[in-house]
Amino acid sequence: MIHLCLYSLFLTLYSCRTDEVIYPTIGTHVTDEVRQGGLYVLCEGNMGSNKARLDYMNLESGDYYANWYGAQNPHQVKELGDVGNDIQVYGGKLYAVINCSHKLEIMDLQARRITQVDIPNCRYLAFHDDKAYVSAYVGSVADADMLGSVFEIDTLTMQITREVKVGHQPDELCVLDDRLYVVNSGGYITNRHDSTMSVIDLHTFTETEKIVVGSNPQRLRVDDQGHLWICNENEVRVMNHSALVTIIDLKASNISICGNTAYLLDAENKVLYAYSTIDYNLSNIQFPISNFENPYGLLATDDAIYIADAKNYVSSGVLHCYSLDGKERWTAKTGDIPGHLCRISAAYDLHGDTTPVTHHSSYIKHVYEYMPGMGQFVNELPKYEEGDDAAAMCRKCEAAIGNNAGGMVSLGGWGGYITFGFDHPVENLDGYDIRILGNAYYMSGSTVYGSSEPGIVLVSVDENANGIPDDTWYELKGSLYDKQVYTSRTYTRAGDTLQNPFHTQPYYPQWIAEDSYTLSGALLPSQSQTISGQVVQTILDYGYADNKPNTDTIGTAFDLSWAVDSIGQPVALTTVDFIRVYTAVDEINNPTGEISTEIIGAIDLHINN
Amino acid sequence: MVRRISLILIFALSAFAVRAQNETDTLINRFQLEEVEVSARALTKDIIVPQTLSGEELQRLNALSVADALRYFSGVQLKDYGGVGGIKTINVRSMGSQHTAVYYNGVQLGNAQNGQVDLGRFSLDNMELIQVYNGQKSDIFQSAREFGAAGNVYLTTRKPYFKTGERAHVRAQMRFGSFALANPNVGVDIKLTDALSLTLDAEYVYSNGKYPFRYKRVLPDGTTAYDTTAIRQNGDINAIRTELGLHHYYRTTGFWRVHAYNYWSERGVPGAIVNNVWRNGERLWDRNSFVQATWQDEWFNRWSTRLLVKYANDYTHYQNYDVQLLPANNEYLQQEVYLSLANKIQVFNWWDLSVAYDYQYNSLKRDEWISGVTDERFYRHSHWLSAATAFNIREYLRLQASVLMTQISNLQSPISNPKITPGIFASFRPYPKIDLSINAFYKQSYRYPTFNDLYYTDLGNANLRPELARQHSVEVAYRFSNLQSSISNDFGYEIAASASYYYNRVTDKIIAYPKGQQFRWTMLNLGTVKINGVDAKADMSFYLPMRFVLRARLNYTYNTAIDVTNPNDSYYGHQIPYIPWHSGSAVGELDYTSRRGDHYGLSYSFIYVGERYGQQENTIYNYVQPWYTHDLSIYGEWTIRRYGIKANIEINNLLGQDYEVIQNYPMPKQNVRCTLAFRY
Q1: Judged by CB atoms within 8 Å, which residues 493-552 of B form the interface with A?
Q2: B414: Cβ–Cβ under 8 A, 6 or more apart, which residues?
Q3: Which of A150, A181, A605, B37 is surrounded by the most beta carbons within 10 Å?
Q4: B657 and chain A: CB distance < 8 Å anywhere?
Q5: Cβ contacts of B103 within 8 Å, gap of 6 or more
Q6: Is A320 a member of any domain?
Q7: Is pLDDT above 60 for A190?
Q8: What is the pLDDT of residue B28?
Q9: Which residues does B597 contact at the CB level (< 8 Å), separation at least 6?
């Protein structure tokens, strides 16, 4: 009887073994705050546990993804590996050093594995030109003196190219002036730590000198002044090559330098100090980390400071994000020992799309085309440099007017255009949908006259879904639509003779190989007249870019419902992907030069940043 | 005859011993009497009945080492790093392996360096009895130190038995198995005089440890993420064990024994299997030697005295040849001197008193080449003083109370005040005619910091306090049988079943904690664990017609071991690492005895360890799957004149489960062992 009871009890409680499942990443929404790009968090995991974990924070959607690498690389045998020790982005790739898996893991920006380079007992990373440098506690050949090595890896072939022996247990390293610096921690030698920094000539790849930098140095960073910051076990030394610049009397466990501020983490007393890299003054900004259990990972960026609490090192950590003035913005639960952070410019969602899941930017993301008419600001706004092609000019336009950067692009003479888009299709909702910003202004005391250089706005839907603006264009019908005349104009290199004395650069777009190009579109009648000796234009009613000042939120706004087809019939668009603006007036004034539409930016009115 | 003795011995004595009982000479009688007495005491005097595996039952288990056998006990959690050479330690009732004391022929095995005894090193081939006591052995006549641990494992080696006219026994055994296991064992028992006998036992173990293992992972939709099979590398072992025993029995009350033990091994440390690392290069050499002597006598039928003396010398050499890691070459030498004097006085028939005093000296000499440590020495003096008393109130109630004073002085550490720990044990038997008892105990015990805890480079903390365990336990035990009433019955059964509930609380738990800059760890008294559990077990023997005997042994444990250190911790209220909620085992054995006295049998065992977590925090990333293995063995035993021959084939992990007891340490899949033994 008892036998039966026990046996049935046993059977009920018996739970079967199933296949071991790799759990996909789980996204947790941790903040509504929107910042640019994303953040990788490499959690070390304890030695022997094989629990190195790469998490990812989408800073645009505010979603934190645990075990992102696992989701991106589910077929990787035994996952990411044992003890993650460094992570950095370089040349469009993500590099992670996995210490006890003895490898450098190379991934794309979404952390999809490309390959690995086996490096024994590897520790930290640095880059220069097309090479990656990795410090390692051991060399490829066992060394009787237990000296470590620095390995050089070609980032194109992803092969080890050279190796140089340095000191005992080399840790952080950096490149400055064609020299590689690496600090030798000697951390494993209890009674006699190393205290040197090796200097390696990058041309010969030999150690040229050893500079004494204090006992057990582990951290080494370079600041904007070209100085080296070394954290040893007693203090922080700032050095100019071998010359000591200053000593900060602080036991710093971690350091991060951004701009001209060096953030030093005192883990023992749980304080983050911000020092100027110029005068070494201590900022009075306080970061409230005194309730951390064990402050560990640190990253300073130009819009946020990230500090990770490693807790007791054998359980989940917590990542804290602070604004630059020390206010806590959000926290996220990480893997074990969040030690290494790196920021990337792109934001990915779970499927690897570059479009954030829920949060879009209201500002211009892409410039697809830039083809100005000849004019006095062509090759200047944006600046043409030898070797630039059309794509490079688009990138420069993006830099100028993308993401609310506030720069300016000139479309030049009549017909010159730019095509741009957002990181999402713009919806056609009730009322105005977008604003386009220019440099128009009212004449003093007037709302009738001013500087108006109207551009006609076209919109297009990516009907063939190829991401390129090669689809049907629809015009947003402006107030003077009925007065427009459709025509075309050919600009030639030979015709580049009109030189305004203020602008003496070539007016012909220098990145165009051909000697001529033809633009077509609608021509608006001139609105210019001279009032009080000033050439001014009559401000048009509505529907043109660079027509009314940016302070006029209605006058610079457009409704996608204004769209008409080539024969003037209204079309009902639900969304648009591409927006084109071209200079619609053909007029040259003295001394102000030709009328050219200028673009400063655009805003999707349906997105709340 | 067989049945009557079985009743007395139940599980304590082997069939072999039982048969030997039939023909006697005086010496055998003395030996047997002693054994019977011990066993009989186990029934009548033990308040907390130990779990026991003995004799042939032990030999028939699919087990190579003591650690393998301990899997069949309830309330015991085994940590096994895999393979013949992998470290195997146990926890009793989730209190941590350092709360478990292991005794070899009555004297504790020590490891002052890390406090852990690798039970994988102790062979079953010369083992006669394994007992696990929760709390303590509830016999007040014991050394002081035996009152000190929370869980106790007693290992008793084989003693010689001589029939009339026999002067010597020889036992030779060869075992082969998967992964190149070769395991010869020779034992010799010599009767020097009627009172003095000598035993010698020698064993060699080799295995290349190259077992295949497989890692298969699937995605949540069921598709395969990866499926890799590899061979375990650097898991080889070479070990030689030699033992010498001298047993002298004089008068009817006294005896002395001397036991010398030497174990030498060289092994690879196969290490954790992690990404990109499929082989490690660490090697380990061990030599464990000890000599111990026991003397016991009794005067006036009232006063018993026992003296124990031991000297142990343990050497460990660790070397790392892995070029990917920093080279290491470390040597450790531990020495131990131990003395114990125990006295028991029977004041009245119903009242015993005992006093015992133990002294121990431990030293450690450390040479760690890489960290630049040479000839570093640590030592420790320990004193234990115990007083205990036992009352019997009629047949209904038996009580024991003990108090232990412990004083440990470590080099460089502040001298701590003596710690006093009480223990109280009670057994209530309400019906004289029914073997039903209700047993309970409360006990406190300290786990003292080891040399590693105190002095390990960059990690040790000389200011550690001992870790305290408080145990509360209640047990109901019931035993019934028809053997007494119907001697001539063709069908007989004996069933012993018990269930216990326990509540333990471990405070001031010694744990490694990170502190300060650059990832430095230190040891701190930081941690509180609350353990609640239920153990249930049943041992059954059915004597069937045609000389068939069916035995079954069932064990089940449910326990929660919850971290309650700090509500702010992410793992507060979580199950501590590697403690399963559910675990259990079932062993069934069918034995047939022919008319000639030959034996044939089939044994099946099933072990189940439920889901658990590999780290403090119970998250999906730390989850460890249940594992369970089915093992099968068949055996035959023949007697041809005075020679005994025994053959045994074991198939372990019959269904080839790919499992891990400890994460990243894969266990062997299906494997086979064959044993052929010859006895004279």
Answers
A1: 495, 497, 513-519, 521, 536, 538, 540, 552
A2: B462, B463
A3: A150
A4: yes
A5: B109, B146, B152, B153, B154, B155
A6: no
A7: yes
A8: 32
A9: B19, B639
d(CA B460, CA B376): 14
Contacts of A218 in chain B (CB under 8 A): 518
CA A145 to chain centre: 43
For B224, the closest chain A residue by CA position comes to: A75
Interface test with A, best of B224, B320, B324, B659 (most A CBs within 10 A): B324
Task: Kindly indicate the confidence band of residue B597, based on its pLDDT and cuts at 50, 70 and 90.
Answer: confident
B323 touches chain A (CB under 8 A): yes
CA distance B63 to B631: 10
ipTM above 0.85, yes or no: yes
Report the alpha-carbon distance of residue B239 to residue B243 in Å, rounded.
13
Percent of chain B with pLDDT over 70: 90
> Mean of the per-residue pLDDT values for chain B?
86
B323–A17 C-beta distance less than 8 A? no
- Which positions in chain B touch A9 (Cβ < 8 Å)? 536, 556
pLDDT, tens digit (0-9, with 9 covering 90-100), for B20-70: 333 333 333 333 333 333 333 333 456 778 899 988 888 888 888 999 999
Number of structural domains (chain A) is 1
Minimum CA–CA partner of B369 in chain A? A189
| pLDDT tens figures, A399-451 | 999 988 888 999 999 999 999 999 888 988 888 999 999 999 988 878 888 99
Task: Report CB contact under 8 Å: A17, B621.
Answer: no
Q: Do B514 and A18 touch (CB under 8 A)?
A: no
Domain membership of residue A138 (yes or no) is no
Nearest CA-CA partner of A181 in A204, A206, A198: A198
Q: What is the pLDDT of residues A314-347, one digit of tens each?
A: 999 999 999 999 999 999 999 999 999 999 988 8
Domain annotation covers residue A27: no
Q: Do A503 and A380 contact (CB within 8 A), yes or no?
A: yes
C-beta atoms of B552 and A312 within 8 A: no
**How far is the C-alpha of B149 from the C-alpha of B390, rounded, in Å?**
19
Nearest Cα of chain B lies from the Cα of A375 at a distance, in angstroms, of 60
Round to whole Å and give the CA distance between B574 and B564.
8
What pTM did the predictor assign?
0.77
CA distance B370 to A324: 44
pLDDT in tens, A502-519: 788 889 999 998 999 999
- The answer to whether the Cβ–Cβ distance between A24 and B372 falls below 8 Å is no
Chain A residue with CA closest to B524: the answer is A312
Question: Which of B215, B276, B325 is the closest to A101 by Cβ?
Answer: B276
A233 CB neighbours in chain B (<8 A) are 517-518
Residues in chain B: 680
Arithmetic mean of pLDDT, B628-645: 92
> Which residues of chain A neighbour B611 with C-beta distances below 8 Å?
15
Q: Tell me the average pLDDT across B404-423.
A: 84
ω before A591 within 30° of 0 (cis)?
yes
Cβ partners under 8 Å of residue B640, min gap 6: none
- Restricting to B residues 246-305, those with a Cβ less than 8 Å away from any Cβ of A are 271-277
What is the CA B432 to chain-centroid distance, rounded? Answer: 33
Answer yes or no: do B372 and A102 touch at CB < 8 A: no
Pairing of strands B151-157, A434-437: unpaired
Quote the domain boundaries for residue A480: 366-604
Q: Domains in chain B and their CATH numbers?
A: 2-679 (2.40.170.20)
Residue A222 lies in a domain: no
Q: How close does chain B come to A297, measured CA to CA in Å?
A: 11
A68-93 pLDDT, tens digit each = 999 889 899 999 999 999 999 998 89
